[in-house]
Amino acid sequence: MKTPADKTVILTFYSHPMKDLSMRWxxxxxxxxxxxxxxxxxxxxxxxxxxxxxxxxxxxxxxxxSVVDGAGKLRCGDFVRGKHNPSIWxxxxxxxxxxxxxxxx
Amino acid sequence: MTDAEWLELVKKGEDExxxxxxxxxxxxxxxxxxxxxxxxxxxxxxxxxMGMLYEEMIGxxxxxxxxxxxxxxxxxxxxxxGYILNSNPNxxxxxxxxxxxxxxxxxxxxxxxxxxxxxxxxKEVWINTHYCFxxxxxxxxxxxxxxxxxxxxxxxxxxxxxxLDISSTANVDQIFSRNVKFMRESWKKHENRDHRKNI
Lengths: 105, 199
Description:
The complex is a heterodimer of chains A (about 100) and B (about 200).
Chain A: E1 9-15, E2 25-31, E3 40-47, E4 55-60, E5 63-68, E6 71-75, H1 76-81, E7 88-91, E8 98-102
Antiparallel strand pairs in A: 1-2, 1-8, 2-3, 3-6, 4-5, 4-7, 7-8
Chain B: H1 3-11, H2 15-31, H3 33-41, H4 46-59, H5 72-85, H6 118-139, H7 141-151, H8 157-164, H9 169-191
Helix pairs in contact in B: 1-2, 2-4, 2-5, 6-7, 6-9, 7-9, 8-9
């Protein structure tokens, strides 16, 4: 995996539509320019109200990423290894896990 | 001048290349019977098209999507035509009713009022795009990544290949081409859905 020297990629994921707004979430995964397999892509997750998720686990590309204060990290190499895995879940303590997907944004 | 030479000039934003864009694409299209009426109704003129084209091709990097299939003029002209067809009179320019006549009296053009809510249509198009993109994601996330990288981030095939560790640029192009077909099919499936209840 190699990102261009002059481009940063931000992938945006949303939870599936939920009637209960408190269950919703939005995650953004940022791949810095010039990244390779060992570089960390930065994850930022907020809830439906735009507040950083205090703690949880973001399950993405077959990897369970720890989230603390709305932030987490994923190795770019792990992203590529799990690129065929459509399963995305946010697990928060004391709540049901909520699925999501990549959006065209 | 060959298409390849012309393409290079356009990519570099050279006056010579963009002069040909005006002469071969924008000006003829804006005078064509098919487009001139819509442009008139939606308060668009050829200089608007030229500005849009420059912004999209150079600013947005869309010129990199040209694969040399067919002529450059034909490809650009299709792009311009799509822009004209999707132009939105509710957001572009102003509609004057002072000089218009309701029934075309006095040898003047009849006043034409929009009969569709363009804002609502564009919202439905946007929602439909998300439905189709989600279908693509469920088919194979890698395909969705390729679609996103090439259309939203303006990645070249080489950059997409490196980002996702795909074996070759030809493979990237093949998958992208299949994605476009898939999205078209998916669109048919979703277009009859009543999106208004979701807005």
